[in-house]
Amino acid sequence: AQSVTQLDSQVPVFEEAPVELRCNYSSSVSVYLFWYVQYPNQGLQLLLKYLSGSTLVKGINGFEAEFNKSQTSFHLRKPSVHISDTAEYFCAVGGNFGNEKLTFGTGTRLTIIP
Amino acid sequence: DTAVSQTPKYLVTQMGNDKSIKCEQNLGHDTMYWYKQDSKKFLKIMFSYNNKELIINETVPNRFSPKSPDKAHLNLHINSLELGDSAVYFCASSQGGPLHFGNGTRLTVT
Predict the structure, then answer these.
(1) What is the mean pLDDT of residues A84-98?
(2) Facing residues of A66 across strands?
(3) Cross-chain residue pair A99–B97, CB shorter than 8 Å
C-alpha cells in the first residue's frame, strides 16, 4: 500500500523568496516519487521525478527535490519564486514500475505575493 | 500538436443522463489512464489500459465503463449520472515513464 501526505494545503510566499513544499510518503515496495504542477484550468505537468540514483533531483522551472529515505520525505524547493509559479503542486508515489497506479497527495496551493 | 487531448472540455448535464468523454494521445504510448479529481483537488486513478487491455480497475461504480478501440484512444462512458459524479476527469498516457495528462473535462451534473 502507498500513501502520500502533503502537510500544507496552502503556502503563500513573497516573490523572489525561497519556498519549500513538503511531501512525506509511505510505500511497501520500491519507491518512485514525482512532483507534478497544475496551472489553473490545465492538466498536470511533470516537474521532476526520482527513480533511483542521486537523491537530489533537479526539474524544470528551477525546482529541485531531495529524496530522504530515512525521513520518507521528498520535499520540493525553489530558491527564488516568480509570480508564474502560482499553481497547485502535487506529490505522487509510484509502484513497481513507477507509473502504475500513481498515488497522489492532496496538493499544495502555492500563491506568490508580489 | 496536443499530446493528450480530451473532449469535451466542459460537460453540463442532468442527473440520470448518459455521457461520454473521449481521449486521444499522439505520443505512441502503450498505457492510458483515467483519473478523477474531486472538488478538493484530490486525484484518484479510475482505470488503466495497456495496449487496449484493462490492467487497473479501481473501485469505480459499474456505471463507468472505459473503452479502448485502439492504443491511442481511451474513452469513458458514464451511465445514469449522479450528482456525486461532478468532478474533473483527466486522461493520461505513459510509456514506462512519467504520465502525460490531458487538460481535463469538467463534468457538472445538475
Answers:
(1) 83
(2) A56, A75
(3) yes
